[in-house]
Design goal:
It is a single chain. The chain has 16 helices and 13 strands. It is 44% helix and 16% strand. Strands 1-13-12-9-8-7-2-3-6 form a nine-stranded mixed sheet, sandwiched between helices. A four-stranded mixed sheet has the order 5-4-11-10. By secondary structure, it is α/β, with parallel strands linked by helices. β2, α1 and β3 form a beta-alpha-beta unit. It starts with a strand and ends in a 10-residue tail after the last helix. α7 crosses α13 and α11 crosses α16. It folds into two domains: 193 residues, NAD(P)-binding Rossmann-like Domain (Rossmann fold), CATH 3.40.50; 168 residues, no CATH class. The longest helix has 22 residues.
Length: 376
């Protein structure tokens, strides 16, 4: 369940730290600064040097527009620093490493983790306390080319929703306050969810043990994967297995339109997935991230499989794809078509052709590729 917080006016002037100067941290720091906030971004190494020299340089791949935004750049979060909101936007495995630093800072009441998460918020809450932690997802994508961030992002005329919420699903005064801060980000709107943990687990099941290793099996080449039916078949079946494992744990598939992967017959899903992964946006939304974040994908896949270890759901497709997370595994032969398709239900699917034709639209919007979003 979700609630849109748009009320016709934006609150500005919040003091915000973006912890993580990767593509999405940079994107959100710039957009929140453009919305009138006092924004700092924490960076180190070459990224620190680039930010101080060039500012945040964003290239919107949809509009071909390039912008430069200057924000305050810091190297540390000290115990005495006080912010209205800390946004942690980084890979899950890296976020776990900074929990002691966040825990030592007791002057910031709200820490929002915008990232993939299969294990749930337990480790975050144990470190910081439930009263400080919020969880969500950035619904954007980007990759670096030098100091320039090429990104898929929300725009004022086509705002992207940022789903987030309390770890226990309640809607509190502080949730609404954080939502108002997020809504100052140019091109974005806040979506308060009461089921954010379920949302994140579903999102991991959709990608990490399924589409991502299939992409690695094709050499991180989305066009090669599109030409390799066996990779597509295994990805589709792995998604189904992941969803079945979540159901066995009592986790509902969230949002509901994700169930399209269970409703539509396999041959039609293959066609839809082939079309989806060859969209131009996939260079940013899937290929760029998979190319640099294999460690996170491995971590999240292992996290998901550990979560679901005690279920009795058979996982032959996940098991076949898992070795491809290792870069030393030989690639799947290009064009391989050895796995027979499951044709059951195809006639029923054809009887609801209208729904099927809308399927790609639903998938694109669900996983965030309708101009603004991201697979990540």
């Amino acid at each position: 369940m979700s609630a849109n917080t748009k009320e016709g006016s934006r609150t500005s002037g919040a003091r915000i730290l973006v912890y993580g100067a990767g593509p999405l941290g940079s994107l959100f720091a710039a957009r929140l600064r453009e919305g009138g906030n006092d924004v700092s971004i924490l960076a180190r190494g070459q990224r620190l040097t680039d930010l101080r020299e060039h500012g945040i340089v964003l290239h919107d791949v949809n509009t071909d527009r390039q912008t430069v935004t200057r924000v305050n750049v810091v190297e540390t979060l000290a115990a005495g620093d006080a912010y209205d909101l800390v946004l942690v936007i980084m890979r899950k495995n890296h976020a776990l490493d900074i929990l002691p630093i966040l825990a030592a800072n007791r002057h910031t009441p709200n820490v929002l983790f915008l990232m993939n998460n299969a294990a749930g918020p337990g480790e975050l809450v144990d470190a910081l306390g439930v009263e400080r932690v919020l969880i969500g997802f950035p619904r954007s994508a980007g990759y670096f080319e030098g100091h320039i961030v090429h990104c898929l992002a929300g725009r004022e005329e086509d705002e992207a929703a940022i789903p987030f919420g309390e770890v226990d699903g309640t809607i509190t005064d502080r949730t609404k306050k954080v939502a108002r801060i997020l809504e100052t980000a140019i091109g974005y709107k806040a979506e308060i969810r009461t089921d954010m943990d379920d949302w994140l687990k579903t999102h991991v099941a959709l990608l990490m043990p399924s589409i991502c290793p299939a992409l690695y099996a094709a050499g991180i080449d989305n066009y090669r994967l599109a030409r390799t039916r066996d990779g597509l078949v295994l990805a589709i079946r792995a998604i189904g297995e992941g969803f079945q494992m979540l159901r066995a744990l009592g986790v509902p598939i969230t949002p509901a339109n994700m169930k399209i992967f269970e409703w539509i017959p396999e041959p039609i899903l293959i066609v839809l997935l082939r079309r989806l992964i060859t969209l131009d946006a996939m260079k940013v939304a899937l290929v760029g991230h998979a190319n640099v974040a294999r460690d996170e994908i491995q971590h999240l896949t292992d996290e998901f499989l550990a979560l679901t270890r005690n279920t009795s759901v058979p996982t032959p497709a996940i098991d076949k794809l898992y070795p491809y997370l290792d870069p030393n595994t030989p690639l799947m032969p290009e064009g391989s078509r050895q796995i027979p398709l499951k044709w059951g239900g195809l006639l029923v699917g054809l009887c609801v052709l209208t729904i099927v034709l809308l399927g790609l639209i639903f998938i694109v919007k669900t996983i965030g590729l309708s101009r603004t979003g991201s697979l990540w």
